[in-house]
Amino acid sequence: MKILSKLRASIAVAAVLILSAVMFVDINDAQAEYGDVVINNYSDGAGMRPVVFPHWFHRVRFRCKVCHADLGFKFQAGGNEINMVKIIDGQFCGACHNGDIAWSVENCNLCHSGKPGTPTQVHESTVQKLAQPSGAKK
Amino acid sequence: MPVSTFRAEFLDTVSGLARGAASPGLALFLWLLCVGAAWAGEWLPLANDGIHDPRSRAVKILQQPREALQGLTPDHAGNQVRWVQVLEKGEIRPREKLFPQTVVQKLDLDVILDAKGGMPAVRFPHRPHTEWLDCVNCHDGLFAKSVGQSKISMFKILQGEQCGVCHGAVAFPLTECARCHSIPRPGQSKPVIPAGIDPRIHQAIGQGQK
Question: What are the beta bridge partners of residue A39?
Fold first, then answer.
């Protein structure tokens, strides 16, 4: 009996410790993959979902230099003023997304797959995590 | 080492600790903590990641992060993938160029940057950077080509300038202080955390280090 009550007490202690550990875990409502970029320069206005660009997917297949040197993508989310005319013309995403290297532009919904209204951002960036002004829109 | 072996070894270590511990409560706590850690370390499915619209058919068609990343050398930060090692070991073979006329440039040169304020000095290795990037990505826009000509500061980096253009957005995050500040000062055996800085943002030396 004595052992049983000792066990109960230690389980209670463990439960308290676990609860306090859980309180330290940072629970965000959005937990997209590190480096995911949302581009919403024109999408919302055009009635399309914003574009989600997953860096993790692309860097498995291409080095950074392919897009950021050869294709001239600036290192700035939303800073390239990409539009569908440029893409169809073979610039930016259109250098690969042409039905030859990767799927072509008629698969609108595969890129335009973000939650409507999500602002342009680099998701899970340290800046976003540490330096988000209080009350800012996520 | 693959993620599954890494996890198994980790679980073994933790359960070994727990068996040695006197209190069954402590054992239970450690076990639950490690289950929690394994759960928190999972890649989320696209439909629940908070930025994809779960009603979009894309979340059923696109590759899931877990499928692409689970077999790669693990990390505890960022994408939970040690990208530089993954490339070195040949676990992935990303293309270097799209156009035949592109000249691929690489450089093997370490630059040591002495840090102010008692932090260990920074070793900047060109080699892993030029595996991924081209010279023009940094020179001469973000950094001057000659050593000492760029005034680099953590203030700017934390605002997303200089190193912070990539580190803190796509390359390993800025909470991994010791990966850059890796050269101890004379008389220091390991990086010293300055007073007033939250020690949780510092990585234990030796852990996850190359």
Answer: A51
**Per-domain boundaries in chain A:** 37-130
Give the gap in angstroms from C-alpha A98 to the nearest C-alpha of chain B.
13
Backbone angles phi, psi at B111, to 5 degrees: -115, 130
**pLDDT tens for each residue of B97-156:** 999 999 999 999 999 888 777 888 899 999 999 999 999 999 989 999 988 888 999 999
Sheet of A121-122: strand order equals A51-53, A37-39, A121-122
Check CB contact of A127 with chain B, cutoff 8 Å.
Answer: yes
**Domain limits of chain B?**
3-88, 110-201
Please state which architecture CATH assigns to domain B110-201: Alpha-Beta Complex (3.90)
CATH 3.30.230.70 fits A37-130, yes or no: no
Which helix or strand (DSSP H or E) is residue A8 part of? helix A2-24
Beta-sheet strand order (sheet of B181-183): B110-113, B121-125, B181-183
With an 8 Å Cβ cutoff, are B51 and A52 in contact?
Answer: yes
Sequence-ordered list of residues with C-beta below 8 angstroms from that of A73, at least 6 positions apart, any chain: A67, A80, A92
- Residues present in chain B in total: 210
CA distances from A21 to A24, B37, B49, B176 (A): 5, 11, 23, 22
User: What is the complex's ipTM, to 2 decimals?
Assistant: 0.75
Q: Which residues of chain A have pLDDT under 70?
A: 1-2, 17-30, 131-138
